[in-house]
User: What shape does this take?
Amino acid sequence: DEKSEKCTVGCPILDRNLNGGIPTKSITEVVGESGSGKTQICLQLVLSAQLPPSHGGLNGSSLYIYTEYPFPIRRLKQLSLSLLSSHPNHLLSSSDPLSRIILRGISSAENFVELLPDIELCLRYWKSRLLPIRVIVVDSIAALFRSEFGNCCFDLKRRSSLFFKISGGLKLLAERFGLVVVVTNQVVDFIEGNESVRIGNFSELCSSGRRVCPALGISWANCVNSRIFLSKDQTGIKITRFSSLLFAPHLPLSSSQFVITEKGLFG
Ligand code: ADP
Assistant: This one.
């Protein structure tokens, strides 16, 4: 809803599209092809979340669950320096922002389901700290399901049961602890007649002209509350990226253009 607390992603044009930032108490999916900027958005989010609400943050720490190795620690450090230089007077500058980001690598969907009770304990424990955990990132959800499942009925059933356990668990935590939850997802080539057609016409929004839709199909798509779609367009060495807010019950469809530089995302 309009009044729910939001967290800046540290890019004014994206924040504007999102009407102030990514909402708490729900699951937001960032979907796009490789190199479109999904991880950059997540890294900026976990840094910006540490800012006070007066600067668009949540005064919070974050839990960053990554499934693709290695975790881009150098890039996180680089973005953290950029954030510190733009907020020199804030408490962030007196301590290490990386100490407020808990990193956890996982390798399978089952592994994630097993981790959910530990995540809840972690949220309770950190609640008493100076900056409680307010953000969970899962980067990427698609990688957890990649090549592990075949196409037979049993596997599809097992797969959707895991989707529901993961998204149900995350939704519960988001509501209980007032969290921003962001999951990243890959795109797959659009196939006419595929069930994913019903998700929305992604091909119209993809500037590269490729006909694509989010991976994992309709049962996963129904598990997320809002979706930001990223695409990129390369002319020579210049890469322009586009973000479209494809689905968010509380907001109209919108789109914007941004670039990624050493210092982060800029509109
Ligand atoms: P995704 O998660 O969608 O695969 P990323 O968020 O990892 O994409 O984005 C990677 C892209 O970001 C790289 O291909 C590069 O174009 C850009 N990028 C990463 N680091 C820098 C940097 N230091 N300076 C400029 N661009 C960068």
